[in-house]
Design brief:
Elements (H helix, E strand, L loop, with lengths): L5 E4 L1 H8 L6 H13 L3 E8 L2 H8 L3 H15 L2 E6 L12 H14 L3 E4 L6 H13 L3 E7 L8 H13 L4 E6 L6 H14 L5 E5 L6 H10 L4 E4 L13 H10 L9 H17 L23 H24 L7 H18 L9 H17 L10 H8 L11 H9 L17 H11 L8 H8 L1 H9 L1 H17 L4 E2 L15 E2 L5 E7 L2 E7 L32 E4 L4 E4 L14 E2 L4 E7 L2 E6 L4 E6 L6 E2 L4 E5 L1
Parallel strand pairs: 1-2, 1-8, 2-3, 3-4, 4-5, 5-6, 6-7, 7-8
Antiparallel strand pairs: 9-10, 11-12, 13-20, 14-16, 14-19, 15-18, 16-17, 18-20
Helix pairs in contact: 1-12, 2-4, 2-11, 3-4, 3-19, 5-6, 5-18, 7-8, 8-9, 9-10, 12-14, 13-14, 17-18, 18-19
Keywords: Biotin
InterPro entries: Aldolase_TIM, Biotin_BS, Biotin_Carboxyl_Carrier/Decarb, Biotin_lipoyl, Carboxylase_cons_dom, PYR_CT, Single_hybrid_motif
Pfam families: Biotin_lipoyl, HMGL-like, PYC_OADA
């Protein structure tokens, strides 16, 4: 019999590759004993990535979630691991050095054993501090090679990177095939090269099933010396997710490897609980298309972990495009047509922005840039006319060194806008901030928490943490779930016949409420009234739970938003006056000039700056931070 291969259940990524959310802490602690009972996992991915942000969106405390979710695995002797984004920590934008250092201390104290660190640009400079901080905190430092397929990303490129990481002190190497587009033979060569020089370094392979390569890739990397294989399980395996445990175990057993046996009774228990969680609310955010294999993904190379949220976002993007098409008497676009346009535009954009590996956050940046190009061009505007600040930071080198050269058109646009390229260490752009957040918490009379975990959470996710603390996040989450459940069930009451109360015909039309419905949501014992709207809400009255900022002078009845010209939202998302809690927001009465940043619309995990197209005095701010906005909603007025 050949050597032993161990399995890791990527439970966190299973959910985030399928849809928008992960289970709540109560659901996680229910399923943990059954996962342990399966008896086949050496490791479980418990947190990291978007896990903490999702907890905050629920209105749950992510620190409690991580502590309670990791505890039973520790007691069973199963290692836990998290995904971290090096310079970006647990978010989509760079993190100050002192916050990064606290990050590993907090997660180790909460029960996470292994830090799987990756840089979306494969810039070793961004990973080096994570190795040092993870090991200082007592964690195993597992460093990732972000696999993609391009003229630049060769076997030699990845072998050299692995050697550099091991030299810096990495305890393990992860082959992170996040899009599943790594070619099996090449992946085997990379693993063989690592093991030839460092047989003592454990190698773990992570892949996604979508394009169809990954089962062959698993066999190749195992034949080359891989030690651990990441797996998923039904009903969330395959599609944008991962190869199923049962398939991988059977294949490797047939190949002569020693693999753990599976307690099938416990397997079915976990499978049943996952389905129960989907039926509760998580399935409302999972597109059925995400359960399908899709060889179209070989071309754009977009990762499985992003495709779950992408399909959900595309529904809103399609609605925006078709509203514009209706307005301009153009034919409606289907979701498949939009998807093909997006994939074609990704293929155009990716080489022109220097071939960043398509992994978080840079896969989102490339996808968002491509999608914005498609949406702007559909409206008759120019390509590259809307580039978010975080994407500019990637282009300019502030997030790390791009693998390839930029296209002349991108360089010319940067120069035309007066933007400067950066050649130094990316971490130098982001000064320490813990003292600032500690002071803010003291002013708000908030506790910094056990092991400073609340301080860490606030510094890592300022806007989301404030929404959690205020109760706003839970209100919005519960209202959104209620809306989606009502839509799924048709809010489905038969339409009463106009003439007589005769029985409805067999082909009765199912209708949803035509007006917003008021509901009461309980948050920690406090009742909030919220309005849930169904279908097209254009022209429908709204009742946000946070009042809009008033104008400095009484507005005429015809223009309640304030006197002057309207500043419109360029896209659908959430409105924020600032990106960080310590930034200075624009306020009523401020004088602004053309080109000044007025506010942000957060969409598709990036903050898109809204700049003044004309100068003047701000007379009204029409929304509160965190409010949902649609394209062309009035954000503020300037006179």
């Amino acid at each position: 019999m050949k050597r032993e291969i161990k399995f890791s259940l990527v439970f966190r990524d299973m959910w985030q590759s399928a849809g928008k959310y992960v289970p709540t802490v109560d659901q996680l602690t229910r399923v943990a004993p059954a996962i342990i009972e399966m008896g086949c996992f050496a490791r479980v991915e418990t947190n990291g990535g978007g896990f903490e942000q999702v907890n905050l969106l629920f209105g749950e405390n992510p620190n409690r979630a991580v502590r309670e979710w990791t505890k039973p695995f520790h007691e069973a002797g199963i290692q836990t691991h998290m995904l971290d984004r090096a310079l970006n920590g647990l978010r989509m934008s760079p993190v100050p050095d002192d916050v990064r250092q606290l990050f590993y201390q907090v997660k180790k104290a909460q029960g996470t054993d292994i830090a799987r660190t990756f840089c979306g640009l494969n810039d070793v400079r961004n990973i080096a501090p994570s190795i040092k901080y993870a090991k200082a905190a007592g964690m195993i430092s597992q460093c990732s090679l972000c696999i993609t397929h391009s003229p630049i990303h060769t076997v030699e490129y990845y072998t050299k990177m692995a050697m550099e990481l091991i030299e810096l002190g990495a305890d393990e190497i992860c082959i992170k095939d996040m899009a599943g587009i790594g070619r099996p033979h090449s992946l085997g060569q990379i693993v063989a090269n690592i093991k030839a020089k460092h047989p003592e370094i454990p190698v773990q392979y992570h892949s996604h099933a979508g394009p169809g390569f990954n089962v062959a890739s698993i066999l190749e990397v195992c034949n080359a010396g891989c030690d651990y294989i990441d797996v998923g399980m039904e009903p969330l395996s395959w599609g944008t997710g991962h190869a199923d445990l049962l398939t991988v175990q059977a294949m490797l057993k047939d190949a002569g490897y020693k693999v753990p046996e599976i307690n099938m009774e416990a397997y079915m228990k976990v499978r049943s609980l996952i389905q129960e969680f989907m039926d509760d609310f998580l399935g409302l955010y999972i597109s059925p298309k995400n359960r399908l294999m899709n060889s179209l993904l070989i071309g754009p190379g977009l990762p499985g972990g992003m495709m779950g949220s992408l399909m959900s976002d595309l529904e809103k993007n399609l609605e925006t495009i078709n509203k514009n098409n209706i307005k301009n008497n153009k034919p409606l676009m289907s979701q498949d047509q939009l998807l093909i346009k997006l994939f074609d535009e990704v293929a155009y954009v990716w080489p022109r922005v220097g071939y960043p590996p398509l992994v978080t956050p840079f896969s989102q940046y490339v996808k968002n840039l491509a999608l914005m190009n498609v949406m702007q061009m559909e409206k008759g505007k120019a390509r590259w006319s809307m580039i978010a600040d975080d994407i500019w930071d990637m282009i300019l080198g502030k997030a790390g060194r791009l693998p390839g050269p930029l296209a002349p058109e991108i360089i010319e646009k940067a120069k035309a806008e007066g933007r400067e390229f950066f050649e130094g260490n990316p971490q130098d752009n982001y000064p320490d901030s813990l003292d600032k957040y500690r002071k803010l918490m003291n002013e708000k009379q908030w506790e910094t928490g056990e092991d400073d975990e609340e301080l860490f959470e606030y510094a890592m996710h300022p806007a989301q943490y404030e929404a959690y603390r205020s109760g706003k996040a839970k209100v919005e989450f519960k209202a959104d779930v209620a809306k989606k459940k009502a839509e799924k069930q048709g809010a489905a009451k038969p339409v009463a016949p106009a003439a007589t109360p005769a029985a409805a015909p067999a082909n009765v039309t199912m209708a949803m409420p035509t007006t917003p419905q008021v509901m009461t949501v309980d948050v920690n014992g406090q009742a909030f009234k919220v309005t849930v709207a169904f279908g097209d809400t254009a022209g429908a009255p709204s009742a946000p739970e946070t009042p809009a900022a008033p104008a400095t002078a009484p507005a005429p009845a015809a223009a309640p938003a304030g006197a002057g010209k309207e500043v419109l939202s360029p896209l659908e998302g959430k409105f924020f006056l600032v990106k960080g809690a310590s930034d200075t927001p624009v306020k009523v009465g401020d004088v602004v000039k053309e080109g000044d940043v007025l506010c942000y619309v957060e969409a598709m995990k990036t903050y898109n700056a809204v700049r003044a197209e004309f100068g003047g005095t701000v007379t009204a701010i029409c929304l509160a931070s965190g409010d949902a906005v649609s394209e062309d909603d009035v954000l503020m007025t300037i006179q």
